[in-house]
Amino acid sequence: MTATETRNPNKQQNRDAVVAETSTRDDVFDDSYKAKEGPKPRMRLVWRNIILMFLLHAGALYGLMLLPSASALTLAWTVVCFLFSALGITAGAHRLWSHKSYKASTPLRVFLALANSMAFQNDIYEWARDHRVHHKYSETDADPHNALRGFFFAHIGWLLVRKHPDVIEKGKKLELTDLKADKVVMFQRKYYKLSVVLLCFLVPMWVPWYLWGESLWVGYFIPGLMRYTLVLNATWLVNSAAHMWGNRPYDHNINPSENRFVAFSAIGEGFHNYHHTFPFDYATSEFGIKMNVTTAFIDLMCFLGLAKDCKRVSRDLVSARAQRTGDGSHKTG
Ligand code: ST9
Ligand code: ZN
Ligand code: ZN
């Protein structure tokens, strides 16, 4: 029996290629990690980040209070900006660049890189590097947002302190040549700050002002700051809530869980027990497009000829794994 299948005509050939590839991946859990003996390194606060995150969340709350004064078009634009920036993380930094779970044409990669800059969550290279080390050394000191350090640390705290030295030590050993060879990724990294100013703040504010006469103030606080903060928190919930609460139908030995609330708010990324068990599956879930806008988007891109070679775990393998290591909550059929 083969481990995975891909959606294209040359099935057997692709299956073999996928199996060979997944056996040498750097996003698969590695249980060889041993914590260093002796006292833990001191936690070093980064006050610049603490102050900026506080101001950002205060601005987002103010944006929330401004909602009644925004026009319907501005609210619709906020939803568009939310979805666009969310896809830059889910379909882009996560499923494409961190996990290589499908292939994307250059126009699609450019689209996803622009969307990723609108999400302002570090450039794609840094995001994917941190994410691979998260999968490989999940719930250890080498995991950037180690959920064993509590909800707050996994959610936002990890961005407010210097990284544990093990994150950097283990991260330096990762295989990142695919990212370095991707011109779109490197271009985005080079012009990251400029692209964030334009796409995360100026474009969301400017479009409603220019096209339908919304005030720049409302444009800045609602589709700008409030939308940015919502996407951040939806993403962080995957690291916090989905590493703590929910069923573990595929592997009860790990903390990542199936969390429907997170799946909804993170446009399909809350099926986290499945995702950590089969990180190379492009759908990040057994259930295809169900509660999974990101998978529907990738399917649409395949239909339009802009994406291909979506990796999928076979139903047989999923069932066998659930029977062997699941918590018993797996539903067949
Ligand atoms: C943000 C990121 O929010 C969110 C990521 C979430 C991930 C979620 C995953 C869940 C699954 C997907 C679900 C998606 C759902 C989406 C839903 C959407 C609706 N390996 O970092 P530095 C080296 S960002 C190898 O400064 P410090 C490297 O040489 C928010 N090497 O460490 C590096 O230099 P460079 C906005 C590594 O000093 C150097 O060390 N941004 C690694 O300890 C220094 O690195 C912020 O808030 C590694 N892994 O500082 C700012 N790491 O990069 C956040 C480091 O030049 N960041 N090195 O190569 C910071 O300010 C700092 O990183 C710090 C740590 C203070 C946190
Ligand atoms: Zn992942
Ligand atoms: Zn995780």
Automatic annotation (TrEMBL):
It is a multi-pass membrane protein. The histidine box domains are involved in binding the catalytic metal ions. Residues 76-279 form the Fatty acid desaturase domain. This is stearoyl-CoA 9-desaturase. Pfam families: FA_desaturase. Its EC number is 1.14.19.1. Its cofactor is Fe(2+). Residues 1-12 have a biased composition (Polar residues). The chain crosses the membrane at residues 45-67, 73-93, 191-211, 217-238.
